[in-house]
Amino acid sequence: MLIKQNIIQEYESAISMLESKIEMLRYSDSTKRTYSLMFRQFLRYTYPKRLSQILSGDIYAYQHHLVTTRKCSRSYQNQSINAIKFYLEHVLGQERQYFDLQRPKKTFKLPEVLSADEVARILKATKNIKHKTILTTLYSAGLRMGELLSLKITDIDSEHMRIWIREGKGCKDRLTTLSPHLLELLRIYYQQYRPKSFLFEGPDGNAYSPTSVRKVLYRAVKDAGIRKKIRPHTLRHSFATHLLEQGTNLRYIQTLLGHNSPKTTQIYTHVSSKSLEDIRSPLDNLVATGIFER
Fold this sequence. Notes:
By secondary structure, this protein is mainly alpha-helical. It folds into two domains: about 1-90, Tyrosine recombinase, N-terminal domain (DNA polymerase, domain 1, Orthogonal Bundle); about 115-290, hpI Integrase, Chain A, CATH 1.10.443. Helices cover about 55% and strands about 5% of the residues. It is built from 13 helices and three strands; from the N terminus they run αααααααβββαααααα. It has helices at about 1-25, 30-45, 55-70, 75-90, 115-125, 130-140, 145-150, 180-195, 210-225, 230-245, 250-255, 260-265, 280-290; strands spanning about 155, 160-165, 175. Strands 1-2-3 form a three-stranded antiparallel β-sheet. Helix 1 (about 1-25) packs antiparallel against helix 2 and helix 6 crosses helix 10 (about 230-245). It is elongated and about 70 Å long. The N and C termini lie far apart (about 65 Å). The relative contact order is 0.10.
């Protein structure tokens, strides 16, 4: 019994070290949660072996188990491999690990995209000013969920009509467009809620939670009578697609989205050239055409 308790403590210590290393390297909270979960599940599979007894054969056997027994997705298997490699390389300091594993290819799926009319219906269905501002910001600026929740009041640059994204994906800063209509909505929201630091704060004064954003969106989608499976990231996909449909150059959209490679942006199709200073948020088109009224 004592031996088993010691092994469990050893495992918990290893997971704690992995999480600490992730924090030191400033990986995202999402990566920390994913790697921690994946590594924990690997250790459950190897239990009751001690860490020093775990060999490469155990890693191969676990990956085979994920594919044949648990029928896990390609993405899940890739995340599992990455978590184990991270522990070996960054926590134990071993040489870069090469496993003779056929990493599963990711399936190519086109993103779910909303039409302009559907976006307008979702925004109209959102009556609470804070919730409306959150969803409008996601769409109007093409933000990732984490980028939205990390926004500070000072990141809204109304003088130059732009939004600063600090340490976005890949720990990179970037700029994206600030719609005049979003700015007006932000000012109304600010007058009512008076956030102190984060642009969108929860009840405790910390950043608004991802779960709350999802609930707000799901409720709005339901109220709008839309049956598509919509996630917050769908608004970002829609932002990019609508820019393309307006004739915005793909290179500028790549910059606004913060993509490293144009190949990532090309999923949204090809478009004609347009200068950066002429780019307008697709939200402006909704207002200009009368599809959406605040």
